[in-house]
Amino acid sequence: MGSSPAPFPDIGKKAKDLLNKDYIFDQKFTLTMLSATGTEFVATGLQKDDLFFGDISTLYKGQNTIVDLKIDSHSSVATKVTVKNLMPSAKAVISFKIPDHKSGKLDVQYVHPHATLNSSIGLNPTPLLDLSATIGSQTVSLGGEVGFDTASSSLTKYNAGISFNKPDFSAALMLEDKGESLRATYVHTVNPTTSVGAELIRRFTNHANSFTIGSSYSVDPFTTVKTRISNNGKAGMVVQREWRPKSLITLSAEYDSKAVNSSPRVGLALALKP
Asked: Residue 101: pLDDT band by 50, 70, 90 thresholds?
């Protein structure tokens, strides 16, 4: 629903995207094709150092069902089936990977005008359980998540967060790592072509602080330049160009001022969609 709060994993997402999205320091190629029936086929190749990984996936969208099937270079088959409108304002997702018989998982999401609930359970004898919830609205939301391992009868995670969103800015405060760290993020849209953002992390266990600041600037309707710098001495830059409709070429680079004997990391990603 349009007025519902975002799911808990999306708290602080605008800052994460500004500071991390499209920063890839390998070589990646993606080809997407759409059949006459609406089925989508995607081939992806990734070269990381001297290793090469690849996968082929197909995506079928029905009226209330989405089926995603992916086969990778390790001969594993991943399947995800999404059923929308399972009940009013709810959807369910079943996913599993062959030959990993313990990979099955069931996710259920329920969206209310003032709350969003997400639950996940592993489909095996000793499943992992995850539950997250947010309450509020698109402007202000408060949420938390908890994970439980039935095999060890222990909590695997518990986090909480609050976000405040307006058309020109977004701020979030997250208590993470079982209460051992505090993350604050902020993104501000200066004008239609320029956005700036920052992230500050305080770790209570060792009293360490870290921060990252970044920006995004649209040179023209087809070209975007992103920059970021962190207190650990790393500076990064992304240049992305839409050289034809829905086809992107992305060049990334990062320099570590504390590793003067190492070469800067450089990555290239090419996404084609005829």
From this structure: confident
β-strand pairing of 154-166 with 90-98: unpaired
Torsion, Cα 185 190 192 193, to 10 degrees, reads -90
- Nearest Cα residue to 234 out of 216, 215, 260: 260
Mean pLDDT over 184-195 rounds to 97
Query: Cis omega before residue 99 (within 30°)?
Result: yes
User: How far is 36 from 11, CA to CA, in rounded Å?
Assistant: 37
Is the pLDDT at 226 greater than 80? The verdict is: yes
Amino acid at 108: V
Within 10 angstroms of residue 225's Cβ, the number of other Cβ atoms is 14
How many Cα atoms are found within 13 Å in the side-chain-facing hemisphere of 102? 4
The domains found in the chain, sorted by start residue, are 8-272 (2.40.160.10)
Assign 2 a pLDDT band (cuts: 50, 70, 90).
low
